[in-house]
Amino acid sequence: MQFFRYIVAVVMIVLCFPLPLFAAEGGEYIAIRKEGSGKIALAINKLDTPVKDESRLAQRLDAIIHDGLDFTGLFTMISPPLNVKDNSNRVNFGALDSVGAAVYADGSVSNTSGTVILDMEVYDTAGAKLLLKKTYNGNQLQLRKIGYAFCADLVELLTGKKSIFGSKIVFVSNKTGFKEIYECDFDGHELRQLTNSHSISLTPALSPDGRYLAYTDFSSGRPALYIKNLSNGRLSTIGKSGISIDPGWRNSREVATTLSFEGDQEIYLIKADGAIARRLTFSKGIDLSPSFSPDGNKMAYVSDRNGLPQIFIEDLSSGQVNRLTFSGRYNTQPSWSPAGDKIAYTTWESGGEINIFVTGIDGSGLKQLTEKSGENESPSWSPDGRMIVFTSTRQGSKKMYIMGSTGENQRPLLPSEGEQMQPCWSLFCQ
Amino acid sequence: MKSKINGIVILALMVTAGCSSRSAVTAPEAGRSQAPSPKISSPVAQTVTSPTVLPTASPNVSVPSSPASSSGYGFDQWQNGPLGDVFFEFDSTVLTADAQSQLKQNAAWLDNNSANKALIEGHCDSRGTSEYNMALGERRASTAKEYLVRLGIASLRLETVSFGEERPFDSGKGENAWAKNRRAHFLMK
Known about the structure:
The structure holds two protein chains of two kinds. By secondary structure, chain A is mostly beta strands. Chain A is 11% helix and 40% strand. Chain A contains four helices and 31 strands. The radius of gyration of chain A is 23 Å and the shape is elongated. Chain A starts with 6 loop residues before the first strand and ends in a 5-residue tail after the last strand. The model of chain A is unreliable at 1-37 (pLDDT under 50). Chain B is an alpha+beta fold. Chain B has a single domain, classed as CATH 3.30.1330.60. Chain B contains six helices and four strands, in the order αααβαβαβαβ. Chain B has helices at residues 7-22, 42-49, 75-80, 97-112, 130-150, 175-181; strands at residues 86-87, 118-123, 158-164, 183-188. In chain B, β2, α5 and β3 form a beta-alpha-beta unit. In chain B, α1 packs across α4. Chain B starts with 6 loop residues before the first helix and ends with a strand. In chain B, 46% of the residues are buried. Mean pLDDT of chain B is 70; it is low at 1-72. The chains are: A mainly beta, B alpha+beta. Chain A binds chain B through residues 174, 177-179, 199-200, 202-203, 216, 218-223, 243, 245-246, 258, 260, 263, 265, 285-286, 288-289, 302, 308-309, 330, 332-333, 346, 348, 352, 354, 377-378, 421-422, and chain B through 58-60, 64-66, 91, 127-132, 134-136, 138-139, 142, 161-164, 166.
């Protein structure tokens, strides 16, 4: 099969991705990296259940796994042929090959006194080779977590990269009448309200390790930076006058934000306890919306030093600044890709539309991802860099949408009342 | 203020000019602040002579999150307060002639009411992106403050804050609404 040209020994997978809490039975692991833009043809058989009563459980897990894998956009889901198992219950790889399935997954689920146990096996159909054999378990309320743990292993196995399963999206919604910050899973499930300030809470940003949430809040009467420790709920803020706008994390210990306490609006680096580490920009006018390269050495940000807002990149060690955007009069909201090679941003066009663009960090390879669909704003990359969450007014009210990193397959994320704004996709996967 | 001659005349000038600019609520971008007439109209004079009844709303107390009508956030304060709002061109922080004229009137009032402090809120229309508008709103407020300081008002009496596009005066769409939202809004402290 063409997809399987690159075969990497499993050792790499084990080293890079320590297996989660669910104990696994050892098998032979092989990472298969997808080549080109083609999708992986995957056939998943319905889960077996030893007891008939558990067929409903199996159906729910089937749906969770199918929908989760489909969400990634990595797979072409192929229905297994009717004769996928022969009379001795062995997998009929010839039949799978003839329907075009490159990978085959099969498994069973049981419920032993409240513990759900999912046994999964994954095969390369061409070589009839076992790629993964693993057991996952949890309680009945953790079906999604159990299913996604398998999905995460499967994606990492086949692509050699971490998946989006277990990642979170934080965003702003006004559904209570106030702008508050919310969190949901990467696919919109498990919605949770994180702030309840009855004021205006804006621009949430999760630290790369997921321990802190930085955001701007008007509870004090002015927009101030808050850093919330998500494990103990403790809030830190900066004891400075002036206002704070739009934080972005450099790493899990330092966040940058715009402060105006010295008069002009400049970007400063702040420690997680609220202490100012250092000032990063020195130009007159607006400097805004920091987004860092994965190694933390470079910062993309918005500056109006030339009159109109454009995106610049600063090298933090040398202090050298280069302008990134030259097309469009109003470019804001930079978001640096997790792989480090691209920056997504928005252009406010003369006709009133706002559109999302992606460019290489040297300004080459500019690509427009949205068009003729109202205001498309606030792009934020998935941790694997394959998708972008953003907001759009294409169906009226501003809501979150998801698309592939080259603009394909744009669809709504979360059907929830109220407007949704300023999504930020976590870098971590829990 | 260069001269502190006859306070009542200054007040009268200020008050009536304030009237004319307030009457331009629906189109602040149109030429306003005509030559003030030195005639005191009694209801406004009453407002000025009774500063204790002036609204002193705090911006973080029970403010509706999305005002639905033209009587939205800031409407009452703007209508009744002695300090008039100043308006800006699209995506601009430059003080127009009208804005400068209004700020001179505000300076005159502050000069004559030295016990009062003012909070200057910067606001933007809803176009563009909200983070940039938050920055733009602060620059509008600080531009207005700097102008007042140049006119002799103590910097410590003037606080600034930005609401970006979060508290539109008029939540409608179109230039008529947007023009009302691009403003530095004055509150008594």
